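To whoever picks this up:

The parser on our side crashed when reading a file containing two proteins. I've narrowed it down to the boundary between the first structure block and the second sequence. Both blocks are reproduced below exactly, byte for byte. First block:
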Amino acid sequence: MKWNSRTRCALVCLAFILLFSAFSFRLIYLQLIKHDEYAGIAAEKHVYKQPIFAQRGEILDANNEVLADNIPVETLVADASHLNNVAVTVELLASRLKILRAELADKLQGDRRYIVVQREVPQATADSLRQELRAQNLRGIYFEHDAARVYPNGSMLCHVIGFTDFEHQGIQGVEASMDEYLRGQDGYRYIEHNRAGQEIVLYRGQERAPHNGYNVHLTIDLHLQNIVENELDAAMRQYSPKKATIILMRPQTGEILALANRPHFDINERSESKPEQMKNRAIIDMMEPGSTFKIVAAAAALNEHKFGLDSMILCEHGAWNFGGTILHDHAAFSDLSVKDILVKSSNIGAAKLAVSLGDQKFYEYIRRFGFGERTGIELPGEISGLIRPPQAWSKISITHIPMGHEIGVTPLQMATAMATIANGGKLMMPRLVKSMTTSDGKTVSSLTPVPVRQVISPQTARQIGEALRGVVSDRGTAAAAAVPGFVIAGKTGTAQRVDPHGGYEKGRYVVSFIGYLPADHPEFVGLVVLDDAQTKPEMNYGGLVAGPIFSRIAEKAARYLDLEPHEEIRKAVPVERVALTNAPHH
């Protein structure tokens, strides 16, 4: 069959039509049907979402002293798909950043596009590395701007401030409890690289700016905190206790002015710290409060009008048989007024005050003072303590609980209870956060004191305060807690150390003193607690160990706060004399 020229021409045209149709269909297939798939593959190779970290808010004290700050650093990241000389890159980075070569080489294997090589690289080091990478034409290594959290005061306030991890997440303290406000909101940008791994700025895609976190201002006064920390360090050197806590609190508002625990740790070197050093003993440790708890029994009895402040109670000459068990006093008291029951710290007298109320009513007052529930302070990990309901009490619990046995309280709960006496009977929620501001200083929110409830009447609070003044006198158990020029109200506590396996540890005590000044218009409440202080047995009492520590702190704090001295009162009597006049009382 012979084809003429017209037929051949038609066939050639048809072939071209079919060929171009195939190319057209392929182009349509790639551009329309497969567009998203191949665009995604291209984006994976050349485009990635770069985070823009928000600046974490600062933490400051009540006078705007910086407690937690940020310093600019860089995060070194790698795109394994862009690395052009892995061996040389590994050698350079390992030598400059002190990274193990084998570990780094293993990390850079594969084709992952986002590998964090090292965080918190100082800017000077990052700048030097950039130059060396550029000089050796090494690709695939990038730097992201970031910030490292630093704590200018080292270990001071470590349990209050807490710290963050590498992801800028708050882990402990205020860093954790206020993390939502401190961390801000990170931004991002989509960037595209060329085959050499360099960003194509013109093709920079969608971008969202970061929103920096709020600054958090605390109620802590760094000067008062320094006074507390120095005295606590001195106490640790003198007595070597297992642990210790000191709290200063403003009773009218619940503001925490200072809070410190031992053991402690340097926040900037936290990786070298032990778990025991990181515990905030003020809110997570339970203790039997000892005789400081007698303020609850006395306040309840007065508030219920069971007795007056001058009512006399027979204290059984030092031994009282109740429920088949003998309750002892540290001295053979006969008749004592309610006031002197606190001044002399009579176990029998406090027990009789509680018995006059009955189990249920006494339990109600314990709970009204805030024991058995969290205080609500802005710190994570707070416990509620241990207060058993009356149906779980034994026959003699009503006589042991008033002197601070058979219950578990936190140091902060005890400080809050004394603040209730000091402020006229109102239980205030302890507060640590004074205000929050934006990075440019605009106030977002500010502290509002939170009264929880009226626990006792103002008149009862004044009566208890009057009795507690006698504690810090020659007649009381805490003469050594006196501050020249000021009238102090306070209470001592000496409780046998609880054995974790049951019972009590013989000869080992938790000693404490809690008080406030000036007694007539209190500016602060102070609590000092030492667990297992190492001293002579005849000296191991709250008035003799914790009392003098309170005195030194209170005197310095009063001077700093520019409090006007009242009537001159003579200094505390010598310790040797106090030791002779104060036998053991628990």
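<<boundary where parser fails>>
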Amino acid sequence: MNFSPLPLAVFVVDASGTIASWNRACEKLAGYTAADIRSKTLEEIIEFDTVAGATLSPPLSAPLSIAARVEIDSTGQLRCANGNSIPVRITIAPQSLDPDQPGTFSVIVIPHDGLVPPRYALIRDLPTADIIEGLPCVFYVIDQSGHLLLWNRQLELALEMTSEELPTCEVQYFFDEKERPEVVSKILAAFEHGHSSHEAELIGKHGKRTSLLFHCARTSLGELPVIFGTGLDISDRKQTEQGLRVRERAIYSSVNAIVITCCEDGKNRIEYVNPAFEQMTGYTLAEIKGRDPRFMRIEGCDTAEHRRIHDALLKRESVQVILRNTRKNGEVFWNDLRIDPVSNIDGEVTHFVGVINDITEARHYERRLHHLAHHDPLTGLANRTLLQDELKFSIDFAVRNKALGALAFLDLDNFKHINDNFGHVAGDAVLREIAGRLRTSVRDNDTVARVGGDEFVLVINNQPGDEQLADLMERIRQRVSAPIGVGGREILAGTSIGVARFPMDGDTVDRVMRAADAAMYHAKAMGKNNCQFYSNELNQIVHQHLMLEASLSKAIGNHEMVLGYQPKVDLRTGKVVGAEALVRWNHPQNGMVPPDEFIPVAEETGLIVPLGEWVIVEACGALKALEALGITDFVISVNLSPRQLRQRQFAAGLGRTLARLGVNPANLELEVTESQLMGHPDEAMQALADLKALGVRLSIDDFGTGYSSLSHLQKFPVDFIKIDRSFLGNVALDEHAVIARAIIALGHNLKLKVIAEGVETLEQLNFLRNNDCDQMQGWYFSPALSQRSLEEMLCSDARLPG
């Protein structure tokens, strides 16, 4: 390798200062010819500055020896051939890396004080400077003193040092103390043999560590022998290797047996097994390496599982099977085997990893359980013996965990008729179909049993509450009662269901079964094809719920729904400026049904959607009636349910309704609860934006009872917020007053109007006025009115007293 002359001068001198060799940079920097230098000593070329503060022997009048300057950071003047002098820094180091020249020293002369820094001056003169500086690795040149003559910025970054610091440091000190002898040995090997390679970790000035792969080669700069080389960052590789070592150790130490096979030429040969495999099977790696794992199989046994393994290996897919193999001593053992493919970087499957769990004991236990837990041969359901075991376990669990469970007895209402008229074959088909329907109606951890000819029993675990349990029983009744197709004919098999809850109706198997049996007979006495609960209270809940659901669907068409309008009053003027439409159900037998009884049912069944549409149409009709009376600035608000808000085309449908009825959108206000908005804020924001585009007004109802994010609240395009009545209960109490004040202030800061609902006392009214609330509604001013009464109030201009 040939370098152009380097301006970083390097001399090799003996102990007396006589120059033995030099590089061409010496000639270039000082302007001397080779003949000029050969006849000079170091003191003739360099004038050393006085060493301040040093205690010297001999006295200061005598010059220091070359050896004495080894530990001193010297400065001086380089005398040039043209008579000029260049300020320089001088580093003197023994030729420790050149065993053939004992007692010689390297003298590195570095220009400073405004001159071009040595590294950049060097690189500037190199024809390959751009290549060296742009290398994706460390580049360096070292002389026989072990000092850097040339390097690139990658080395500075790794060592966290500047170009001025690097020439004065011996390279071995860039490494950990334990690695230094090896580093020096490798550099000497390069000087002696021409090249060397090694891995080492550079340590930066501030502790940064970089793992590098070094390659060194010998060359010369002029007459100066040097080593140049590169260092490639292998930190990622080292980290990967460490990860592989950890994973290898994990495999080695795993309690699961692991076997790794190599797939070549369509065959799978064992490459590795861990100690757990050796212990489980009795075979050592040395005995079975290179063999196909199938040597442990039992021929003719578990053939379906072996076929699954074969197919998965051909398709290079994962597979999990349970099968039997033999140990070295001939003992048969059950194992749960999971096999997964391993791909190389090109995506080609080269290996398979098998993980084996010995499940022999568990398998024997399962077989004993299977033997004890007989099943019904016709339906495959549990029989009475297993039912009692499962029921006892479920009752004990419910007692310990204070959970709700249930036992349901189902008796087919007309099974004898089915057998008599359609035959026993059809009867058996009906029983199998009902068994299947029952299985799919409950969860895997519930139990379905057949305990008699046409009697089925369900053990239902861990129910959230009575109403959910009642809903589940009704769904099961409907599924069992649905037509069953047998031989081209439809057979109806209704069922009477009796339900006992545990531990409320009993905390033992006997008590719970007797309670469920009594409830089932009660269901038959009630006319069959129904469900009865052991407790009278729950019976009442079930009947009311079912009756309510059945009659609610007819209520709208039968004109049983009515709207009341509760006035909203402006607190500054006392004027009635709006009203909230409140739906009521005038049941023909039960009278007026409160909304908190039928609204939840409407939500659950989906009837809230047609009910909500009816309310909007009725409210729009009231607005048109008021408009005919000359009242055009009145606003009626309607509550929106979550189902309505989630309807994709709700806004478009509302727009069509307003246009068809000729109602000004600004006179309609839609109220949504805080919890509706915060459940899915992004979806709610889009839904509100679509509604706002119609021109209707929007308000947040029950504000303060949910968990609003102010960042979302600022983005919702609403006009009003309503203070929930719970915060006005007793405004004399600080905790109530503080929250109410905060809501009013928050609303005003967000440029929203604030409405208080549930105002019932003068004290509450005065509090709202004193805190600048905008509107109120409540019994203090007026209860909900009929449409006629509302019209009379507005025509008479009734107002809230000042």
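After patching the parser it read the second block fine. The radius of gyration is 47 Å. Residues 1-6, 53-61, 122-126 have pLDDT under 50 and may be disordered.
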